[in-house]
Amino acid sequence: MKKVAVVGAAGRMGRTVCEAVNSADDMELVAQLDAGDPITAHNLNGAEVAVEFTVPTVSEDNVHALLKAGVNVVVGTTGWTAEKHARAQKTAKETGKNVLIASNFGLSAVFTMLFAEKAAPYFESVEIIELHHPDKVDAPSGTAATTAVAVVEARKNAGVPASPDATELDPKGARGANLDGVHVHAVRLRGLNAHEEVLLGNPGEQLVIRQDSFNRESFMPGVLLAVRQIEDYPGLTIGLDKMMDI
Ligand SMILES: NC(=O)C1=CN([C@@H]2O[C@H](COP(=O)(O)OP(=O)(O)OC[C@H]3O[C@@H](n4cnc5c(N)ncnc54)[C@H](OP(=O)(O)O)[C@@H]3O)[C@@H](O)[C@H]2O)C=CC1
Ligand SMILES: O=C(O)C1=N[C@H](C(=O)O)C[C@H](O)C1
């Protein structure tokens, strides 16, 4: 039985992860920590893996504390940057513990990001629309940011120029966020959960890659996959796709 702790256990994702771990035959939920609970080996109660879904402002500190407390860590919280990744990698190395940071555990999102990266060099234009529930605190979504980085990198490696855009006047920011040349539009709407569209355009054709996570349970197969595999992935791993045979 894999002993699992959940950090952010009272949150929307944390509660869903607790239920998923409790329903898994090969896992035991040994600790549930939330805001105000110190991350100590004692409070982790023998956990081998901690799953961290909190808020972007605290996630980095939590991850360092978890690694230092002697557990492998599966992180779903957003807001990670290249600098934060580098610091997590250093602590993972120093502690001999492993950490996975994944902006989206939904398999539909994993494949959306992969397909977008593959297609991006073959289209003149690329834009991203992410659509979420209105209780989300960050924009653009971590998934959209990850997608944009992958798209930008793929286009740069292929020598593809920036998407054409004649916009000169945009005083209200109607063109959305510009992430290294990829425009990202964030929708917040009651009734939605988590969705992304990558739009790719060429003269006379369009490709739309869309994924929909209709509920939080949809992230759980990916989270449990990571909990089962993290032991075998030394140091820092970025993205669930690295743990999948794709
Ligand atoms: N990777 C993925 O597949 C997914 C990622 N996410 C991301 O996961 C994160 C959490 O989302 P969601 O569950 O909706 O958010 P919630 O706000 O519902 O949950 C966050 C929880 O973390 C708690 N918390 C705050 N500070 C700390 C702390 N220092 N230590 C421990 N717990 C703390 C909050 O407590 P309090 O409210 O009292 O402050 C709250 O209970 C977000 O970044 C979101 O974008 C979401 C879905 C899927
Ligand atoms: O806050 C959410 O809900 C989600 N957050 C992640 C993100 O920002 O990409 C993953 C998913 O989109 C749900």
TrEMBL record:
Q: Which reaction does it catalyse?
A: (S)-2,3,4,5-tetrahydrodipicolinate + NADP(+) + H2O = (2S,4S)-4-hydroxy-2,3,4,5-tetrahydrodipicolinate + NADPH + H(+); (S)-2,3,4,5-tetrahydrodipicolinate + NAD(+) + H2O = (2S,4S)-4-hydroxy-2,3,4,5-tetrahydrodipicolinate + NADH + H(+)
InterPro entries found in the cross-reference section: DapB_C, DapB_N, DapB_N_CS, DHDPR_bac, NAD(P)-bd_dom_sf
Q: Please list the residues that make up the active site.
A: H132, K136
Q: Which domain of life is it from?
A: Bacteria
Report whether Transferase shows up as a keyword of the record: no
Q: What is its main location?
A: cytoplasm
Listed name of the protein: 4-hydroxy-tetrahydrodipicolinate reductase
Going by the UniProt record, its keywords in alphabetical order are: Amino-acid biosynthesis, Cytoplasm, Diaminopimelate biosynthesis, Lysine biosynthesis, NAD, NADP, Oxidoreductase
Record-listed (S)-2,3,4,5-tetrahydrodipicolinate binding positions: H133, G142, T143
Q: Which residues bind NAD(+)?
A: G8, A9, A10, G11, R12, M13, D34, G76, T77, T78, A102, S103, N104, F105
One GO cellular component, as annotated: cytoplasm
Which Enzyme Commission number(s) are listed? Answer: 1.17.1.8
Source lineage: Bacteria, Bacillati, Actinomycetota, Actinomycetes, Actinomycetales
Keyword GTP-binding listed: no
Q: Which family does it belong to?
A: Belongs to the DapB family.
